[in-house]
Amino acid sequence: MNYKEFAFFLNNNAGKMNRGILAKITAQFPGAEIFLSHNDNESNLYLQKIIQENYRYLFLGGGDGTFFNFLNQIPEALNPDLLIGILGLGTGNGLATEVNSTHFQNTLNKIKKSSFANFSNYRLISTEGKFTHFSSVGLDAQVLNDFIRIKNRYPLLKRKYFGLPAYLLAYFLLSAKSEIIRRGVMVKVINEGEKVYRINEQRQADLLDLKPGEIIYEGLANLTGVATSSFYGFGFKVFPYARLNENLMNLRIANISNQEFLINPRSLWRGSYYNDQFINDYLVTRVRILFAQDSPWQIGGDAFGFRQEITYELSEKKVKILDFSQ
Domain for residue 324, yes or no? Predict the structure, then answer.
């Protein structure tokens, strides 16, 4: 195979990145271009070159944050024909979980054997001038903020491979006590798109008679988010209906108590949990969300401060992600 069509963009700061990773790629893919990024400036320069050289395949080595940064550093230059492979080298690797590329060597073997004929189109979500595959306000953004706090409090946790322990400590020491998680915040979700579907107990989508400007949901919630990909890090399937229809995004509104999570950890983690007293799932194209108080916000797994109002819209932009699951 002509590996000159391949570009590997590696985030040196990714949780699982090391010299051995770089050595394996160099040895197994002679002729491929390899870009090792240490900071945003390098990342921007490398991505500009990747776009200019018009590679056929781009393999991103990092986590969801690496993918998010790729989408937003040169969004106007995204090539709709570029085939993107995800090498799960980050802390959580939600998107890599979805396309079965979290095991680095297995993924390299499949690339060598050209075992990636399939790809999936991922529609992007637009919010405040940025593109992403998932975003939310509430619980997970609170945990993300506390994750940053706990790593600053205990420097040992800043080391690579301490991602999951740091997240668990952040949740149990800080997040679980927060008012947003314990009680939720009053939320109003307004439809601004054409169609709204609600997921029923049979996991089917029922079309609702809702016009633009009408309320989809009003009540307490400790997580309100949208996604076109299903997984967060560590195999947590937070948006189980994100891939149900390529032309819709999964809107999830949840008010899960700590007790409910502890009673049903397996079904919640796997995305099979259903109880409309605690979680409501919809398929939408554009929504405006109002919060009664400032609430923590995350985009693509990165913390972005606090919001009382946010609008999400399904963008016309899409990317082709290689699927290694077969």
Answer: no
Beta bridge partners of 87: 61
Helix residue spans in 154-222 (DSSP H): 163-173, 179-183
**Separation of alpha carbons 236 and 76, rounded Å:** 31
- pTM exceeds 0.85, yes or no: yes
pLDDT tens per residue, range 254-281? 998 878 888 998 999 899 999 999 999 9
- Cα 115 from chain centroid (whole Å): 24
Give the number of other CB atoms < 10 A from CB of residue 127. Answer: 18
The dihedral through the CA atoms of 131, 137, 140, 144 has a sign that is positive
Q: Can you state the angle between helices 139-153 and 163-173, rounded to 10 degrees?
A: 110
Q: How far apart are CA 96 and CA 16, in angstroms?
A: 13
Do the beta carbons of residue 251 and residue 226 sit within 8 Å? Answer: yes
Could you tell me how far CA 251 lies from the centroid of its own chain? Answer: 14
Dist. CA 248–CA 315, nearest whole Å: 10
Residue for token pair 């995305």: 271
323 domain residue, yes or no: no
Residue 110 to residue 324: CA distance in whole angstroms: 7
Instruction: Convert the pLDDT of each residue in 28-71 to its tens digit.
Output: 999 999 999 998 889 888 888 888 888 889 999 998 889 998 88
Residues 263 and 305 in one domain: yes
- Domain limits for position 10: 3-117
